[in-house]
């Protein structure tokens, strides 16, 4: 199969959507003339015109608000929030309106928007441009949250989001834009709420979110040489979350590490850990361990940021302490 | 002066342990007011003041274990002198009986999985050394403890008995293996707890034997046991009460029908489980039996293989046994015993006698859960299915 980068896979999915569905349009900052802050929408303005690729002023509230209005009128908007850190500005529109309108209207109104965003941890973008805050949206019933980790998943999850009649937050990771992987040419979908076992193993389960999938796989390769077999599970969407797949894996290995780029306190890992204890307590052979970022603002200094970031070494350490103490 | 004694709460109770004094010496107490918490053999209870007054003297501290009916405290008026004789008597008992204070509950550091397995295998966690972080007992530690099972035969004891009364000589001592111990404990528990009731019927296996030959010709080897498993599983679908367990005052009916099959190995009896037996084909069941039997003989049965059984079948037909009465495999509600198939004369139409291959089926069930008539209907259904084997496919 041909290989694309993560960025190219997203770009292809977006372009196909614009070609195939006249109701789809893009809206966001710098997505037109500039081609997107990460060049995902490069040349889209020339190809599809300003009606369908809408540059906006710097107002996230306006971007998501306009997208919700358009969706209510029957269009399929794809809004881009340049950095995940900026979502709080449009949290009212996203969490209080988009996520609730369908419920509050008794199903008569639908808000089929996709909000694309990315997190830039590891690029020395500073404390307000690097955050990974997916857990904030776990408390917003009505909102789906997809976190692709591979080019294949990026295209498949995006295509699924296109079909969804509800708001979907689609979180990319800018450190992954250049990661390559196989991507089929046809438009396939990956169902939401279906985790993917990225690697099978027997001794420890690592539930890894977004970028951490790659760190977990790297850790698994190193540990494999020492005779340990690590299972890496990527939930792919955290809302809905495929807890059954995680439980099945925990039943097999008895030990679980949750690896995530967000802060440990109240992170996605906290929710997953609670569910595991609720549903699989008797299968645990060790405490659930979280490998996450510390509870501090993200340092600007590249060296300090590297220290801050969870990585394969921290996963290996966690595996070792689970097994040997 | 009134004595407070350790009451005997049930006939088997010999001692009680003081968990906590609820009153201090000198405090006022009302008649019937709890003054001390005592742990008996089976339960923890409060001992009440026999009279109104003041707690004048406590004889034993927390943690002491005291024989039933012994005095543990005195109640009287504040100005009343404590008679010397009562104190002296108590103190003699005290020096004899006072034991070193033991922790009430011993905390064993073990993972939830290790605890679950230990319970299933009847392993005492206190006897295991944990190899996990900070000495935590892990799954592996429990499984290793189970694996250590071996029928070690120790050399015979030297001829003892200097006395005139000679006890029988002992040739050798075989310590109970873990498996044996588990079997012993569980079966005794079953006999002790379940209200075991037995019903017996005969089944004509003529059709089944013919049918099996047909299947063999087209699909290959199939064991007769597979048909019995399937028949029981199907009968359980319509008689789910036998696919249950009794917990306190609730009967819990299992959703899955997982037939455990008793298999005799060198280490003792094991009962691996054929999960969802009712949903499997005869061939699938037959293959599962083959696989589990092989695993059992190679001691390779996993925990998964051994847990989750909801009903047990045991077959001693191969050992020339005609009829036997098995013991319910706890915590299940019923067990089916199958004897050997024998050609026997049976009366037909009241005046003719035919010779047919007959086997005796024994259903032992827990009468606490279900009564005899439903049990008879359930057994009849198994019989009907075995006599009409085409319904089993």
Helix content bin of chain A: 25-40%
Q: Could you say which structural class the secondary elements and strand pairing of chain A correspond to?
A: alpha/beta
* Sheet with most strands of chain B: 7 strands, mixed
Rg of chain A computed from alpha carbons, rounded to a whole number of angstroms = 19 Å
Got a strand count of chain A? 14
Strand content of chain A: 15-25%
| Poorly predicted runs of 5 or more residues of chain A | none
Question: How would you name the oligomeric state of the polypeptide chains in this document?
Answer: heterodimer
Largest sheet descriptor of chain A: 7 strands, mixed
The gross shape of chain B turns out to be elongated
Overall spatial form of chain A: globular
The helicity of chain B comes to 25-40%
A few lines on this structure:
The complex is a heterodimer of chains A (325) and B (393). With 325 residues, chain A is an alpha/beta fold.
Description:
The complex is a heterodimer of chains A (325) and B (393). Chain A has 10 helices and 14 strands. Chain A has helices spanning 6-20, 44-48, 60-72, 91-104, 151-163, 212-225, 243-253, 268-280, 302-308, 312-323; strands at residues 3-5, 24-28, 53-55, 76-81, 114-119, 144-146, 168-173, 180-182, 196-199, 204-208, 230-234, 237-239, 256-263, 289-293. Chain A has a 7-stranded mixed sheet with strand order 3-2-4-5-7-6-12, sandwiched between helices. In chain A, strand 4, helix 4 and strand 5 (114-119) form a beta-alpha-beta unit. In chain A, helix 3 packs parallel to helix 4. Chain B has 9 helices and 19 strands. Helices cover 29% and strands 25% of the residues of chain B.
Keywords:
heterodimer; A: 325 residues; alpha/beta; 7-stranded mixed β-sheet; 14 strands; B: 393 residues; alpha+beta; 4-stranded antiparallel β-sheet
List the helices and strands and how they pair.
The complex is a heterodimer of chains A (325) and B (393).
Chain A (H helix, E strand, L loop, with lengths): L2 E3 H15 L3 E5 L15 H5 L4 E3 L4 H13 L3 E6 L9 H14 L9 E6 L24 E3 L4 H13 L4 E6 L6 E3 L13 E4 L4 E5 L3 H14 L4 E5 L2 E3 L3 H11 L2 E8 L4 H13 L8 E5 L8 H7 L3 H12 L2
Parallel strand pairs in A: 2-3, 2-4, 4-5, 5-7, 6-7, 10-11, 10-13, 13-14
Antiparallel strand pairs in A: 1-8, 6-12, 9-11
Helix pairs in contact in A: 1-5, 3-4, 6-10, 7-8
Chain B lengths: L1 E4 L9 E7 L6 E2 L4 E6 L4 E5 L4 E6 L6 E3 L3 E6 L7 H14 L14 H10 L17 H9 L30 H16 L2 E9 L1 H14 L4 H15 L5 E4 L2 E4 L5 E3 L1 E3 L2 E3 L2 E2 L7 H16 L5 H4 L4 E5 L18 E5 L3 E7 L3 E15 L5 H16 L6
Parallel strand pairs in B: 12-16, 16-17
Antiparallel strand pairs in B: 1-8, 2-4, 2-7, 3-6, 4-5, 6-8, 9-19, 10-11, 12-15, 13-14, 17-19, 18-19
